[in-house]
Amino acid sequence: MAHSRPAREPLASVTEQPGEAPRPVPGADPEKRKRILAAAVKTFGSRGYHEARIAEIAAQAGVAEGTVYLYFRNKEDLLGVVFDETMDEVLAEGRRIVRADLPAAERLARMVELHVGFLGADRDLASVFQIELRRSARLVERFSRSKLVEYFRMLDHVLRQGVERGELRRDLDPRLAVRILFGAADEILSEWLLSGESRPPSDGRRLVETLLHGFIARGPAATRRKAPRKGDSR
Question: Tens digits of per-residue pLDDT, 33-45?
């Protein structure tokens, strides 16, 4: 997903904010529109947004080039709709996870699995989100702010609930934790894209478990092997 700044907002905005209504198109054929969007994802992902042409997208969708303009204003509009409608799906599922009667740790694991799994299921879509949207600061600013901020608010809300209920450390900084969770999931997806690995990434849950449990060993072995303090003689 493209980057933006995490922010806080009341619970109502996290659990009840509806997605934006799609642009009405008189006489539109939903299946044709769906084919054009799928073709745009494939073309943007394989060719790159700046290299892609509307004619290529039309050919991939099996429609005339002029037909694309009956549904979308231009190439940038197409990219924006791909982002918006993908995020609408992610956010709808995210709201269900946030509302679930589950411990904070489980909801965090499911949120990160949603992030990694949704994009990991479609390499072209992942390329659009991880690479193409980030090539232009203007595109990131235009497309990512409101919907991505809502995703951050969901993570923030679950973290704060976990602290309030005593499930997470009381000194946890939710804003920092949101950045860590998002950044780590984002890196998993980017590394997967660059590696050329065909198998979708499946590290979302392990990522959350690692962050929740930390890197420090516990038990007798950890107690015996403490790092020397500054000034201790060797």
Answer: 999 999 999 999 9
Query: Two tokens at 137?
Result: 């600061």
13 contacts 94 by C-beta, under 8 angstroms? no
For the chain, which residues make up each domain, given as ranges?
A: 75-213
What tokens appear for 31 in the block? 């299946």
Rounded Cα distance between 51 and 110, Å, is 36
Q: CA 220, 225, 229: angle at the middle one, nearest 5?
A: 135
Please give the distance of CA 116 from its chain centroid, rounded to a whole number: 7
H helices of the chain, in order, are 11-16, 30-47, 54-61, 65-71, 75-99, 104-120, 123-130, 137-164, 174-195, 204-213, 220-224
Residues of the chain predicted below pLDDT 50 = 5-21, 24, 222-223, 234
Distance CA 196, CA 86 (A): 23
Question: What does the pLDDT look like over 86-127, one tens digit per residue?
Answer: 999 999 999 999 999 999 999 999 999 999 999 999 999 999
Contact assessment for residue 158 and residue 18, using Cβ atoms and an 8 Å cutoff: no
Two tokens, residue 229: 């303090």
Angle at 203 between CA 200 and CA 204, to 5 degrees: 105
If one looks up domain 75-213 in CATH, what number appears?
1.10.357.10
Q: 48 in the Ramachandran plot: left (φ > 0), alpha (ψ -120 to 50) or beta?
A: left
In contact, 128 and 41? CB cutoff 8 Å: yes
